[in-house]
Amino acid sequence: MKIDLGKNIKAFYTTIYDGNMAYYTTNDKLSVDNNRQNIALKYDFDINELKYMNQIHGNRIEVVDSSSPSQILECDGIVTKEPNLPLMVQVADCIGVMFYDSVLDIIGVAHAGRNGTFLGISSQMVSKMIDTFGSNPKDIKVNLSPSIQKCCYEVDANMAEFVANNFGSEFTKGRFIDLQGINKMQLIKSGIIEENINISTICTKCSNQPYFSYRNDSGCGRFAGVVVINSKS
Ligand SMILES: [Zn+2]
Questions:
Q1: pTM above 0.85?
Q2: Spacing, Cα 201 to ligand 1 middle (Å)
Q3: 79 CA distance to ligand 1 centroid (A)?
Q4: What class is the 9-146+199-229 domain?
Q5: Which residues contact 148 (CB under 8 A, 6 or more apart)?
Q6: In the chain, where are the structural domains located?
Q7: How far is the CA of 94 from the centre of ligand 1 (A)?
Q8: How many Å separate Cα 218 from the centre of its chain?
Q9: pLDDT tens, residue by residue, 176-215
Q10: Å from CA of 203 to ligand 1 middle
């Protein structure tokens, strides 16, 4: 599924039909290699330049370039200004977040699960873009991937209470919590314009759309969000 983030940018989410995109969910490394090769052909990016993360449910963001290793360790967000450097986030219920500074041509991806959201990873990414590249948050467009939504994201009573106390009761309904809403609130606090935040309404658990859902099948693969800056030449 292609995402419209801006004219110099290629951005998309893979589906179940593209297969599993994460090495950490399987012993079948070859199948992941093949699936990644196939999306590189399908969406026309250089698989040898792909950067992805091991995703540890934290909030650390790394700046990457073509000299970085393929897998960026110990982080949940990567950001670059380099054209033709595809960045990948892998999810199944968690939120994949894409960032694009449309003036400076800076891109980022982040993995916002429950913990990453609580740690403010979306805000961390905005701060990183400001501090490293001088981004103006008003120029940054954000896209939140298909992910488990408040219709299905049930947690225990203590967790729901934690969310209500720390983020606001508007983000809970009984034991159901709204991680997309919390990310949006954090982004707006970081200076992102509301109209520049696009949140997929697809719930991975109940929509019957072709996206992996960990809560539907804990043995499932991961789909991916990929964003790349097109070459300027
Ligand atoms: Zn749902």
A1: yes
A2: 9
A3: 30
A4: alpha beta
A5: 93, 94, 179, 203, 204, 205, 213, 215
A6: 9-146+199-229
A7: 13
A8: 19
A9: 999 999 999 999 999 999 999 999 999 999 999 999 999 9
A10: 5
